[in-house]
Amino acid sequence: MGYHSKPNTFVEHVTIKVKNLERSLHYYQEVIGFNILEQTETTVELTADGETSLVTVEQLENPAPKPGRATGLYHFALLLPRRADLANIINHFIDKSVRVGSSDHWVSESLYLSDPDGNGIEIYADRDSSTWEWENGQVAMAVDPLNVPDILSEKKEGESWEGLPAGTIMGHIHLHVADLQETKTFYTEGLGFDVVSKLGDQALFISSGDYHHHLGLNTWAGVGAPATPDRSPGMKSYTINLPDEETRERVVANVEKTGATVTKENGVFVTSDPSGNRIHLMI
Asked: Quick one: average pLDDT of 206-226?
């Protein structure tokens, strides 16, 4: 999975806020298949390989209702190592009577669902990058029906679902934003991503190193939508991994040129995009 390693810039972690930690923990273990890496009274670090935290779940104090339309998380996306792993989790969802959405995006095959607080989750497997079609720096993607029987034919004899496979990583994140052009400036001129696909004037897909997308950005919650309140369920922050210190210094300078601020909190460089989506800049 070279698209999610240096020298590329990629998303590697998300922190989400929930109303009830115990309820969420049951969901993320029993339905999604995470294991616990670390746990306190108010937070849980979730892992697939027993070493790397992919998702932090944080208990809200005095939670407020989640607004119907706001910027913030659309979904975070867990990338499975093999198509056969997608077959295994489909069978698991069938056994658990879990309702999911699905799409064939040409570059990948995806399942969609939401946790008990409405935080969106995608679970997907990439098609081989040699099959992705590019023209003038843009990758062809679609929203076609998923051929579930063909995926299930990939199931290996003797294999069964035993939770997320160890090679699962954070494949990408997709965000609701308030203004697409302002957001594009921040992510391309500031963070250095490339636009690799557009969906009219409502959505952009951006990446590093010719991946089909490390980030999706859309205005489907409405142009000018307000930020999700701090006390509401949703995304608290996500983490971008940069190749090295030199790149981070350049990114910090470029982000500030876009008008955003960068602060250092407990040794971590932190910024927010124009819609208030909070970002940790790690190396």
From this structure: 97
